[in-house]
Structure formats: C-alpha cells, structure tokens
C-alpha cells in the first residue's frame, strides 16, 4: 500500500522566524501519518530548527538539494551526511529549477540519489517535462529518460524509499497546472518505466508525485488519479493555512 504524500517546497522563500511559526501552526493540525505523510522542504539554514520543532509530530523535514559527497573540498555545497545528522528525512533532487539555473545533469542527480539513499534518507527525484505525445496513438513516450538515468545502480531493495515527482516545467509557478489526465499520463509513464527497469512489484511500491501549480482547488482531483500518490506544492505551501487546505484535501 502506498501512503499518500504531500510535500511543500518553499524554494528560496521565508525567513527563519516565518519558517518556525509555520511549523508551530501546522504541527498541531496534521492528519495521522498512517493516512497521509507530509513534509516541508526548506532552506538548509532552517533545517535544524524545523526538525526540532516538528519532533513528535507527523511533519517531516526535507532538504531541497544536496551534494553527492559526504565531506571534502566542495565550497558552498551541502553534505548529505550533515542532512542526515540534523534529522532530515527527504531530499528533493533534480528539481527543474536546479536543472535550469544550475545545469544539473541526470548523471549528477543519479550520484546524489545514490548518496541520499546511502545516508538513509529518501530522495524525491524531479523529472522535468521531457516527454512528448506520439500523435498517432496518443501515447506518452520519453524523449530523454530522466527516470532511468537518475536510477542507475539504485538497488531494487532501496526503491521503496525513492519517490519520483513528475513536474512539467510549464506548470511550475505559472498557475497553469496540468489537467488530471495529463498529470496521470506522466505519472503512469514513470511507473511503467520503473516496472520495465525493475519489476511490476517494485513499481507498485514507488510513490509518484505530481508537481506544478497545485492548489486546494485541484489537489483532490489529482490525488484521486490511480498513479498519482501525492503532490509537491511550491506556492501553495508558503502559508500554513493554504498548506493545511492541501493536507485536508478529502474534506
Ligand atoms: C515546485 O516547486 O516543485 C512547484 C511545483 O511549484 P508551484 O507549486 O509553485 O508550481
């Protein structure tokens, strides 16, 4: 059984005091973790404080990126070992903004994913829109396969800790979300790719998320799709009331 997952990605927003008050509000109003898992991905500067404040609540804390080495001469980078050390549970990797502005390649994202898994955390691997519809049979196919590239050398037994986020770049931050049919198509393609790479059993364990202008208005429809196990929300996660509306999508 795949437990639904809703995560907020704050990107480079909020101050430390805003982040702390967000956690103080949200931690007391969360659905039980057996029915929904939830996380917030924040600036590395806020992570120790957020982990402390969320302790004992179902809210988990995520990082937005990390490097693939645990330590060394890599000025300005964030070590996955230090993320584990402060109690981070998830790390977003390969977000389309990292790919666009920081030229992250699939190869680099793969090294980061291996490192996050080695350190006992779960990677949430972003797949940008690199797909096209084959017009003749209205079927999705890869132009470039970010899923198989990112999962190179990831062992089948680690796959239940991996999440993949289907995030078409035209939907991120634009207010124009994919329709539930488009989002389901993308997530279905990701699941079939994992099935071909590993097995149907492995593909069945992996949580696949949709991201791109998710709001309280479209979250329930998206979450109802068979291959969408959760959502990654940017803008809608910046305010505690809006984030709680996402979490309570069933009400
Ligand atoms: C994101 O940052 O992953 C995202 C989907 O942002 P937004 O919800 O603002 O489109």
TrEMBL record:
This is Triosephosphate isomerase. Its main location: cytoplasm. It is found in: Cytoplasm. InterPro entries: Aldolase_TIM, TIM_sf, TrioseP_Isoase_bac/euk, Triosephosphate_isomerase, Triosephosphate_isomerase_AS. One of its GO terms (biological process) is gluconeogenesis. Keywords: Cytoplasm, Gluconeogenesis, Glycolysis, Isomerase. Substrate binds at residues 9-11, 173, 213. NCBIfam families: tim. It comes from Apilactobacillus ozensis DSM 23829 = JCM 17196. Homodimer. Belongs to the triosephosphate isomerase family. It is an enzyme of class 5 (isomerase). It catalyses: D-glyceraldehyde 3-phosphate = dihydroxyacetone phosphate. Its EC number is 5.3.1.1.
């Amino acid at each position: 059984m795949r437990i639904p997952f809703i995560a907020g990605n704050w990107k480079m927003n909020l101050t430390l005091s805003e982040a702390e008050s967000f956690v103080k509000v949200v931690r007391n109003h969360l659905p039980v973790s057996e029915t929904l898992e939830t996380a917030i991905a924040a600036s590395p500067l806020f992570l120790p404080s957020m982990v402390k404040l969320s302790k004992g609540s179902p809210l988990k804390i995520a990082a937005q990126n990390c490097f693939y080495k645990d330590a060394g001469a890599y000025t300005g980078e964030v070590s996955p070992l230090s993320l584990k050390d402060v109690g981070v549970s998830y790390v977003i990797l390969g977000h389309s903004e990292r790919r666009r502005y920081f030229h992250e390649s699939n190869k680099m994202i793969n090294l980061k994913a291996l490192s996050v898994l080695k350190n006992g955390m779960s990677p949430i691997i972003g797949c940008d829109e690199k797909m096209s519809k084959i017009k003749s049979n209205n079927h999705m196919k890869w132009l470039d396969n970010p899923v198989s590239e990112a999962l190179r050398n990831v062992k089948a037994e680690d796959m239940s800790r991996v999440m993949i986020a289907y995030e078409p770049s035209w939907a991120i931050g634009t207010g124009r979300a994919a329709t539930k049919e488009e989002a389901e198509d993308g997530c279905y393609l990701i699941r079939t790719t994992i099935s071909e790479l590993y097995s149907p059993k492995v593909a069945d364990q992996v949580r696949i998320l949709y991201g791109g202008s998710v709001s309280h208005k479209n979250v329930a429809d998206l979450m109802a799709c068979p291959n969408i196990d959760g959502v990654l929300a940017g803008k809608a996660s910046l305010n505690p009331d809006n984030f709680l509306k996402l979490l309570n999508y069933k009400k």
